Amino acid sequence: MTCRRHGAATLSTECLDDPAALGEPWQHLWRRVRAPFAAPAWVLAWWRWFGTTRARVAVLRDGTDLLGVLPLYELPEAGKILPIGAGLADFQDALLAPEAPADAAERLLRTALAGASLPCHLCDLPPGAALRDAAPPEGWRTDLRKSDPCPLLRLPADVPPGQQRKLRMARHRAARAGGWSMEEADATGLKMLLWLHAARWCDGGVLADARVHGFLQDAAPALIREGAARLFLLRLGGAPAAACLALVAPGQLLLYMQGYDPTYRFESPGTLLLGAILEHATAAGLRELHLLRGDEAYKRSWGAVPVRNALRVLTPP
Q1: Which of the two ends of the chain, N or C, has the fewest CB atoms closer than 10 A to its terminal CB?
Q2: Which domain holds residue 236?
Q3: Which residues pair with 253 in a beta bridge?
Q4: Residue 136 falls within a domain, yes or no?
């Protein structure tokens, strides 16, 4: 990779009130970084379904080259500024080109918060996020707090013997029920995933909010076309029994949403699907399998290690 020097005279920032105004340069930048929750398809779909009229989208350019994007927005009824995507994105950070200057996140923060009177809650910052350490605007106070755990399996995983035994038992039961298989579906399989997720949770789960349903139908097909998402479908006896929407990052697979048909509870379709995805990811040479937000017992049973996100609260003077 060729590193470029940036002269202060060539760097510029601005704050936009509409994320869609970034256009194709944003897509081009994202394709170089491939952070799924920062994809234009994800951010713009979220904005269409949940956005206000108060976007604060900071951009950093070197001449005409886009080097960084930080999409924030004001939520006056909550009295805070948040990242666009908050609540549905498990990881948040500024989108930065590899050659962006060391203070790029600081410049973006300063631009996005210029003139703001509300505190800024930078939620879901994973370890290594540029926004964790970026200097705040002058006079702003900063407080970094522990947030939700996001368990992760480093590959190849050392799955505990007890979980290996459960997986073998599930596969034996599935064989007696007509056999099992895992396939990768295209975007047309999304309706099946949404049905299986709702079937798994009596209250509809996250899909109880109809806007989430619409957001996923908006964002997921575009991500699948870009290779930034994959849809895995498990069949038992030929019938759909479980599904998972996984987001794709370099060397990583992020298991975003799962669902299964309770009719097949005895065959443990969730265990079958996760076991098959784990084997697939390992064979593909991936480094990490992220099970994302929530420290549920089933994640620990696979040997996943909880990694804590952070919430950084910036308070204006």
Answers
A1: N
A2: 152-290
A3: 248, 289
A4: yes
Distance CA 177, CA 116 (A): 60
Whole-model pTM: value is 0.93
237 and 249 together in one domain? yes
Tokens of 258: 């799962």
**280-298 per-position pLDDT tens digit:** 999 999 999 999 999 999 9
Residues 158 and 207 in one domain: yes
**Which whole number is the average pLDDT over 250-254?**
97
Distance from C-alpha of 117 to C-alpha of 191, rounded to nearest angstrom? 42
Cβ proximity of 43 and 4 under 8 Å: no
Q: Do 111 and 206 fall within a single domain?
A: no
Among 310, 311, 308, which Cα is nearest to 295's?
A: 308
In a domain, 299, yes or no: no
Q: How far apart are CA 82 and CA 120, in angstroms?
A: 6
Question: Does residue 219 fall inside a structural domain?
Answer: yes
- Number of folded domains that form the chain: 2
Helices (H), 183-236: 190-200, 210-225
By DSSP bridging, strand 288-290 and strand 95-96 are unpaired
